[in-house]
Amino acid sequence: METKIVDANKELLEFDAAAKCLKEGGLVAFPTETVYGLGGNALNPNSSKKIYEAKGRPSDNPLIVHICDIKTLDKICKEVCKEAYILAERFWPGQLTMVLNKSDIVPYETTGGLDTVAVRMPDNKVALALIDKAGGFVAAPSANVSGKPSPTKAEHVYNDMKGRIEYIVDGGEVGIGIESTIVDLTSKVPTILRPGYITKQMLEEVLETARYDKAILEENAGKDLVPKAPGMKYKHYAPNGELTIVSGNPETVVDKINTLVENNIKCGYKTGVIATDETVQQYRCNNVISLGTRKDKQTLSHNLYNALREFDNMEVLYIYSEDFGEDEFGQAIMNRLLKAAGYKRIEV
Ligand code: TXA
Ligand code: MG
Fold first, then answer.
1. What backbone torsions phi and psi does residue 133 show, to the nearest 5 degrees?
2. Nearest ligand 1 atom to alpha carbon 122
3. Which residues place a Cβ less than 5 A from the ion ligand 2?
4. Distance (Å, rounded) from C-alpha 98 to C-alpha 96?
5. For position 220, what pLDDT does the model report?
6. pTM surpassing 0.85?
């Protein structure tokens, strides 16, 4: 199959053709503000099956249904609770996915056999227009091959998905760069199943209370808790090189990473470093990528997956990263980084 790339802002006829293809059961990748999604018609069981095949993803890992109009929420969900409308009012369109009870029109192929469905309205004009033209309900996981870092550019999608899907709608680089926050509203207390740009604190500004799914908290890594978002149990976001995170006070971290790099270079191992603008000059290594300044966490998240893919292109064998977990959004970045590292971390 040929994979056509469509410039969302210039090729309007082709954009309409992509939307039609999506509506009729084809697969179309598209930009959202978090990461690129791999879209199929959420109400068509065959489309969902094709998504799993294209990604090489286990079919018990449910898809997020993307909508473009809050009025359609009660078509795919039953018993929509008041918290859902409160959160939608405050955070949609935006980086929040809500898990609710599904209605009968949502096939089990889309929800991985669950009676609940995850729903999000993305904050991206191209995505909203595509969803609208494609019939209003687009199932979309991140548009990477299962286990790879999520794509933040159309080029990343092309590298992973060429020959596997009909279209890629190119809307430029995404803004946020890590996936949406997922909150489960079917449990008694709204529960965060995956951290993201929207933090627990932000949720608690409009809800009485919210909590984290214990299985996703860092201190419980490796214990036998099963995360409620099935996707969180898989190794994820992983680059080809072996990634280790180095935590501690900034100066000691730089020293430690320099020593590790030096040892690797002696052995002839190509090594990369994930740094920040504050430290980038201090590394004695040829392959240093700064994610940006620590003063702006959104820049850090925006550049993270691209950096991991860049290190794959450079074919580095080892990667060392600084720690970013100073606040709640930093924790969301660390959640991805730790999974990419298989929780390998050195404290100095
Ligand atoms: O930002 C995002 O959420 C991106 C963009 C494309 O919207 N999408 C995304 O999808 O990250 P994906 O498939 O890579 O991650 C979806 C996560 C998985 O961990 C999955 O297990 C969880 O959502 N999930 C989906 N439906 C669920 C449900 N009914 N109950 C619990 N978890 C669910
Ligand atoms: Mg994903």
1. -70, -25
2. 7
3. 142
4. 7
5. 82
6. yes
